[in-house]
Amino acid sequence: MRQVVIGGAGLFLVMGMTPALAPVDTGIAVAANRGAAIPFDFDGDGYADLAVGIPHEELRGKAGAGAVQVLYGSQTGVSAHDQLWHQGKKGVKGAVEARDDFGHDVASGDFDADGYADLAISIPREDIKGVSNAGAVQVLYGSPDGLTASGDQV
Length: 154
Hints:
By secondary structure, the chain is an all-beta fold. It has one domain (2-153). Helix content is 0%, strand content 39%. The radius of gyration is 15 Å and the shape is globular.
């Protein structure tokens, strides 16, 4: 796997498949390939999918709440099939709050070793148990239908 940094984004080229772009802040998003055949292939169809962090996205009037847009790959490139993930969405822990920066960084790996790529999403300014800006990571799990949320957050 080749990793190339272009203007603050990590571009992953995998076996000539559709590139998967993951915005990064201070380093390269790491594709920890432990079981999935292709990093960022969340639905296991053999084509890399595109996960784009939008950490400064305003949601429900909350500036900087953040989101992640996932576009699914196909034989002809990025398809119209997509998902928008953010806090407050069913299965995603946490409420929509200003300046949490959900989606600041993303990384792919088969964290549950089921053969589907999963997505780790950073929430660097999440408040945890009274600690302001403690930070958290939300994990979305790959499946034949694409990413699903189970509420796992660390």
